[in-house]
Specification:
Layout: E1 11-20, E2 23-33, E3 38-42, H1 49-54, E4 63-69, E5 72-73, H2 79-85, E6 86-89, H3 101-106, H4 114-123, H5 139-150, E7 157-161, H6 169-182, E8 185-189, H7 193-199, E9 202-207, E10 210-215, H8 217-220, H9 223-230, E11 233-238, E12 244-249, H10 251-255
Parallel strand pairs: 3-8, 3-9, 6-7, 7-8
Antiparallel strand pairs: 1-2, 1-4, 4-5, 9-10, 11-12
The structure holds adenosine-5'-triphosphate.
Adenosine-5'-triphosphate binds at residues 20, 23, 25, 43, 45-51.
InterPro entries: AAA+_ATPase, ABC_transporter-like_ATP-bd, ABC_transporter-like_CS, P-loop_NTPase
Organism: Glutamicibacter arilaitensis (strain DSM 16368 / CIP 108037 / IAM 15318 / JCM 13566 / NCIMB 14258 / Re117) (Arthrobacter arilaitensis)
GO molecular function, one term: hydrolase activity
Length: 258
């Protein structure tokens, strides 16, 4: 798989707040995402992860504060420039389009050449399935095809909303390793904390719309924070190879003394 030769983006959220009617979904969030890092956005259901990501995708609600990508204010960026700079992978819902893998990547407001499509499919290891109908792909292949679509303009920032959902453990690892190979900045909402610890460089922990912690995943997911934010008991274990894992235990198991 080849990697991009463009420079990864830097992202800055500065005092960002979002309200949906009377409900505050994000509350004064400030964070800087360094170029080239894979950054996990974690937190319980409804804590604001998708809302934070949506500020970068052009489908954002009204917000206060500023969001910049490479110093440029996202609110004044032209839609075409934003689409080129930022690749987006949303959670897939609804029926699959009746197209081949090649067509999925090629078709859009700015059609890609055959060479560009082939290059993009090679980046995600899907070149051999180029003529396959999208509807015939497995879950893991489909995620890679959707990732290829997100990469169609060679973005310098990827925004992914729970990209490992519905993937088995092998394909979860494969997808995260693929993200590492791409050498772009990646901001991705993840529910799997152990996966986040294993594969991400930086982590934003949200709770009730607020940024509770930001930093290296090992430092963010302390026992007390995991308990406070997720109401889950955890233990951080480091293997002989130096790999940290998070062991989780539900409140019921804890109460039962397991
Ligand atoms: N379009 C909307 N209208 C009204 N409220 C919304 C809307 N979108 C999100 N919310 C609310 O904003 C809060 C944050 O939602 P968001 O989807 O960003 O959370 P999340 O962390 O991505 O959740 P999940 O883990 O369940 O996907 C929630 O309370 C949610 O109900």
């Amino acid at each position: 798989m080849s990697s991009s030769h463009t420079t990864p983006s830097e992202v800055a959220f500065n005092a960002v707040s979002v309200n949906y009617g009377p409900r505050r979904a994000l509350d004064n969030v400030s964070a800087t995402i360094a170029a080239g890092e894979i950054v996990a956005v974690v937190g319980p259901n409804g804590c604001g992860k998708s809302t934070l990501l949506s500020l970068l995708t052009g489908y954002h609600p009204a917000f206060t504060g500023t969001v910049t990508v490479d110093g440029e204010d996202i609110s004044t960026m032209r839609a075409r420039d934003r689409a080129r700079k930022i690749g987006v992978l949303r959670q897939h819902t609804g029926p699959l389009p009746d197209v081949t893998v090649t067509e999925l990547v090629a078709l859009g407001p700015q059609k890609l050449s055959t060479h560009q499509v082939n290059r993009t499919l090679a980046r995600v290891g899907l070149d051999e399935l180029a003529t396959e109908p999208v509807a015939a792909l497995s879950g893991g292949q489909l995620q890679r095809a959707l990732l290829a679509r997100a990469l169609r303009h060679d973005p310098t920032l990827l925004v992914l909303d729970e990209p490992t959902n519905h993937l088995d453990v092998q394909h979860r690892f494969a997808l995260m390793e693929l993200l590492q190979d791409l050498r772009v900045t990646v901001l991705c909402a993840l529910h799997d904390l152990d996966l986040a610890i294993r594969y991400t460089d930086d982590m934003l922990l949200l709770a009730e719309g607020q940024l509770r912690a930001h930093g290296h995943p090992d430092a963010v997911l302390t026992k007390s924070r995991v308990l406070e934010v997720f109401a889950i008991d955890s233990e951080s274990v480091t293997t002989a190879r130096g790999q940290t894992h998070l062991l989780l235990r539900s409140a019921r198991a804890r109460a039962a003394g397991e």
